[in-house]
Design brief:
9 strands, elongated, two-stranded antiparallel ribbon, Trp Operon Repressor, Chain A, Alpha/beta knot, five-stranded parallel sheet, 19% strand, 229 residues, alpha/beta, binds adenine
Length: 229
C-alpha cells in the first residue's frame, strides 16, 4: 500500500512511522508512506498556503491553489482509491473503516490546520472525510498518523502470529479479554488458573466469555451494532 500525506508540519509525521510495527511494515516494503510539505506548492515566495476567511472571523483557511496543485501533481504518479481529509466534522473513524481502507492500494491524506481547508477542495477532490473523535486537535497530522497505524498493521504480512490483528479489540465487535504474563503469582495476586491449564479449548472459551463480559460492562453499545466488520 502507498500512502501520500500532504501537510504543513511534516516533522510531526517523522517519528510515528519510524518505529516498531510501522517501521517493520515499511522495511518489508508492505507500506510506503511519503509526507509532502504543502509549502512546495505555496502561492508566493513567502510560502503562503493560507489566507483570511471570507465573511470575517478569526482563523486562517488553507487556500485552494496550493492544495489543488499538490493533489493534481501527486495524482500524476498514482490513481488514488481515496483522497481523505482529516477533519473533526468527518465520519468517525473505527475498525470497520480501517479494515476497508486496508484493502486499498493508494491513499492520499490531507492534514488541515487553522480553520481548515477551503470548502471547494472538499467538494471537488476529497472523497472521504474522517474524524478520529469528538474533540478538536490543532491539525490533521496526529489523526493521519493514527489512521496510517490502524490501517498499516492490518496489511497482510505486517503482523506476525503473536500480534495477529484477528484478536484485537473491535475486530468482532468485542473488546479484548484480559492478558497476563509471568510470574503466575505476584504479591499474592494470581493469574486465573485456567490460563495455566494448558487446555487450548478451555482457554479459548474463557477468553471469549471474558471478552463478552467486558464488552457488556464497558461498551454495551457495541453489542447492538451490526456484526459487519
Ligand atoms: N483535525 C483536528 N481535529 C481532528 C479530529 N478530531 N479528527 C480528525 N482531524 C482533525
Amino acid at each position: 500500500m502507498h500512502i501520500d500525506i500532504i501537510s504543513v508540519l511534516p516533522e510531526l509525521l517523522e517519528s510515528p512511522f519510524a518505529h516498531s510495527i510501522m517501521k517493520r511494515a515499511r522495511d518489508k516494503g508492505l507500506l510506503n508512506v511519503e509526507v509532502h510539505h504543502l509549502r512546495q506548492w505555496a502561492v508566493n515566495a513567502y510560502g503562503q498556503v493560507d489566507d483570511y476567511q471570507y465573511g470575517g472571523g478569526a482563523g486562517m483557511v488553507m487556500m485552494c491553489e496550493p492544495l489543488v496543485n499538490a493533489i493534481e501533481q501527486l495524482s500524476k504518479n498514482r490513481t488514488y482509491d481515496e483522497v481523505i481529509y482529516l477533519t473533526p466534522d468527518g465520519e468517525q473513524f473505527n475498525q470497520k473503516t480501517a479494515n476497508q481502507l486496508s484493502l486499498q492500494q493508494n491513499l492520499l491524506l490531507i492534514c488541515g490546520h487553522y480553520k481548515g481547508i477551503d470548502e471547494r477542495v472538499r467538494e471537488h477532490y476529497v472523497t472521504k472525510e474522517i474524524s478520529i473523535g469528538d474533540y478538536v486537535l490543532s491539525g490533521g497530522e496526529l489523526p493521519a498518523a493514527i489512521l496510517v497505524d490502524a490501517v498499516g498493521r492490518l496489511l497482510p504480512g505486517v503482523l506476525n502470529d503473536e500480534t495477529s490483528a484477528l484478536f484485537d479489540s473491535f475486530q468482532d465487535n468485542l473488546l479484548a479479554p484480559p492478558v497476563y504474563t509471568r510470574p503466575a503469582e505476584y504479591r499474592g495476586w494470581k493469574v486465573p488458573e485456567i490460563l495455566l491449564s494448558g487446555d487450548p479449548k478451555k482457554i479459548a472459551d474463557w477468553r471469549y466469555e471474558m471478552a463478552l463480559q467486558r464488552t457488556k460492562e464497558r461498551r454495551p453499545d457495541l453489542d447492538e451494532k451490526e456484526n459487519d466488520l
